Amino acid sequence: MKPDIVRFSNEMRQFGLAVVSAIAVLLAGGLLGAKTEEAYRQRSVEQAKVQADILAAGVAGALAFDDQKTVGENVAAIRRNPQIAAVGVYDVTGVLKARSAASGATGPPDRAPPSSARFHRNGVVVASPVIQQGVRLGEVYLRTAPETLSDTLRRHGGLALLVIMAVMALALLARNTAELQRRSAALEDANLRLLREMDEKARAEEALRQSQKMEALGQLTGGVAHDFNNLLTVIMGGLETIGRAAPPQVGDPTSARLHRARDMALQAAQRAATLTSRLLAFARRQPLEPRAIDVNRMVSGLAELMRSTLGEAVQVETVLGAGTWLTLADIGQLESALLNLAVNARDAMPDGGHLTIETANAALDDAYVAAQSEPVAAGQYVMLAVTDTGVGMDKQTLEHAVEPFFTTKEVGKGTGLGLSQVYGFVRQSAGHIRIYSELGEGTTVRLYLPRYRAAEVAPEERTDEALPGLLVGDETVLLVEDHDDLRAHSAGLLRELGYRVIETADGPAALAALEDNPDIALLFTDVVLPGGMNGRQVADQARARQPGLKVLFTTGYTRNAIVHNGALDPGVQLISKPYSFSELAAKVRRVLDQ
Amino acid sequence: MAFRRVPSWRRRTAGLALAVLALCAPVFSAGAAPLEWAVKATYLYKFVAFVDWPPGALGAPGEPVALCIVGPDPFGRQIDEAGAGQQIGDHPIEVRRLRQATRGSGCRVLYVRGGSNRAALAAVAGEPVLTVTDGGGGGVVRFLLTRDGKVRFSIDQAAAAANGLTLSSKLLAVAVRP
């Protein structure tokens, strides 16, 4: 606004200057014109006087000696000059002796007028005496023709033209100056705009770099986690098999020691599995099972759990919004995310403090969305905020907060995967995460999950699956798994459960086996397979040949084969690696009994 | 003058005035001799103004210029009336009536009438005197009467030159060619 005012006042000053200059030029022109006019009149009067003198000299003798003819001749001669409109000659007594006037012009007066010479609108009027050596002989009267308009114009035209041109030049100059100022202002604006755009571009590039970094980290961690899952499945399965094969012998110290070692190994393997699942979550390759969730109910349940686990020093409070919308998300992952945040909050408050979990409805508008570096759609969201009164984070820490393995905790205390899981899960659920933090003030993490608009049925309660007691069977299972160890391990588990198992390593082999064994009841396949067919394609072709065939997928992570956007296709059964003996037993039985 | 008698209501139209003038002038000049003398009297005064006098001929400023009438005076009081208050430059006019013209009389204009002028003219020959004759010939200026009775004059430039006078071309222009 301010530069505009300055520019405007500048223009006004220019304009004022031009007006003053124009007025000065006009005044000077007027003065000069008046001066010229005055000089012209004097000259005209002088010329008329000269004419009168010539006439007086010419008629002096004739007047003195009463020569009417000569007077007439002189009058006629002087009237030859077309600029003389009227002439009169009077004798010494004032009687008109001779006259002449242009047609249409007023004639000379009848009696001699008093001597004078003046400029008149109708022309210069001169009346002068005829004197010969001091002897007054009479009077002559002479009037010139009034100046024609064209003569007047010609006389003043040049000056007027100059003045007009000067004024126009001034106007042009003022206009050009104003234009120049406008242009320089526009240039300034453009420069500012350019600087702003460069800033924006730099920000956008930074955001792109950040998201590429996250993507690369996701690829890396996802790949690692997938391989680890396969290994962990084998390890955990092996340990379970050991436990089942050699039941503890009461009173045998060797047996007891072996079982303790086995239990510890199994626990470690399970913790490793938790880590890989977080890595997968960060990589957004966690298979999700989204359901409609009433976040208020869920938070209430979680708050109880937190109060008992976070310790006396941390006061857990919940602020639940009224009429909070449903959201569609994997409840296990959401709980995991909130617990991760709670753990971080506790660690940020070593001396205790308040942990507040808040829920509310939120709308992200276009302006907010446009300002974010990561893609997020505008619209209605359910907001979950976890706030602590802890130490907070500085800017640099905040920048790296969600990167996997980034931690401010002591070595061995944190994995650096907590916020990564939260971030990956929220992003995979088409949500948005926002972290506000200031050193010494605490941290607020807001999770925005899309509003779920389907019929607002009461969300189904998770039914904890009962451990398999007698979940065994004798059906034939076609196992497709490219990982040799894992295939052998899984086949062993299934055989242990009583099933007949046909092992294949890829899709074509599996389909061939299906041809040979029409009694296959279940296809248990890995999603990612070598040999040009993925698990889904194998399942589709197998179903085409044997419509009643049951299918169970397994995967360490999923790309697009059976999981769209991280959500299972309806009706698809999946067991995530690593899975335990009991999980596998329950899942296989459930699929077969459908 | 004849013009004065033109009725004033007719003066408005120049052509008509001229016609009236043409009719009236001869009547008055022929029938009224005194008018002729009055005209001649004023002419005598006016001649002075149309002459370039030699330096010093008119005397010091304020000194009168003598207008001499030699022999019988045909003007009477008319010439005194005509010259009353008249001045040629700084010089008043003084009318003198002389029986005989003599050298050194101081006359600047010398009027002689009739044939008895030879002696008078001879008396002032070579002096800066404007000699005016009325009939009989001789002199610088000679009065004439036109056929319609108007007073005119002719000029002898050689005579003027002999007296050391130069006459104004304005005078020459209105003079009748001899």
Per DSSP, the total helix count of chain B is 6
Q: What order do the SSEs of chain B take from the amino end to the carboxyl end, as H and E?
A: HHEEHEEEHEEEHEH
Largest interface: A-B, 24 and 30 residues
At CATH level 2, the architecture of the largest domain in chain A is 2-Layer Sandwich
Rg from Cα of chain A: 56 Å
The tally of strands of chain B reads: 9
The proportion of strand residues of chain B reads 15-25%
Uncertain segments of chain A: 456-468
Stretches with pLDDT under 50, minimum 5 residues of chain B = 1-11, 13-32
Task: Tell me, rounded to a whole number, the average pLDDT of chain A.
Answer: 84
Largest sheet of chain B: 7 strands, mixed
Radius of gyration of chain B: 17 Å
In total, the number of domains of chain A comes to 3
Question: What is the global morphology of chain A?
Answer: rod-shaped
- Report the CATH C-level class of the largest domain in chain A: Alpha Beta
Q: Any idea what the shape of chain B is?
A: globular
Total DSSP helices of chain A: 13
CATH topology of the largest domain in chain A: Heat Shock Protein 90
Content-based structural category of chain B:
alpha/beta
Structural class of chain A: alpha/beta
Describe this structure in words.
The complex is a heterodimer of chains A (594) and B (178). With 594 residues, chain A is of the alpha/beta class. Helix content of chain A is 51%, strand content 21%. Chain A has three domains: 146 residues, Beta-Lactamase (2-Layer Sandwich), CATH 3.30.450; 165 residues, Histidine kinase-like ATPase, C-terminal domain (Heat Shock Protein 90), CATH 3.30.565.10; 118 residues, 3-Layer(aba) Sandwich (Rossmann fold). Chain A has 13 helices and 19 strands. In chain A, the strands form four sheets. In chain A, strands 6, 7, 8, 9, 10, 11 and 12 form a seven-stranded mixed sheet that branches. In chain A, β11 and β12 form a beta hairpin. Chain B has 178 residues and is an alpha/beta fold. Chain B folds into two domains: 31 residues, no CATH class; 142 residues, Rossmann fold. Chain B contains six helices and nine strands. In chain B, the strands form two sheets. Chain B has a seven-stranded mixed sheet. Chain B is globular. At the A-B interface, α1 and β2 of A face α1, α2, β3, β8 and α6 of B. Chain A: Keywords: Coiled coil, Kinase, Membrane, Phosphoprotein, Transferase, Transmembrane, Transmembrane helix. Chain A: It catalyses: ATP + protein L-histidine = ADP + protein N-phospho-L-histidine. Chain A: Pfam families: CHASE8 (PF17152), HATPase_c (PF02518), HisKA (PF00512), Response_reg (PF00072).
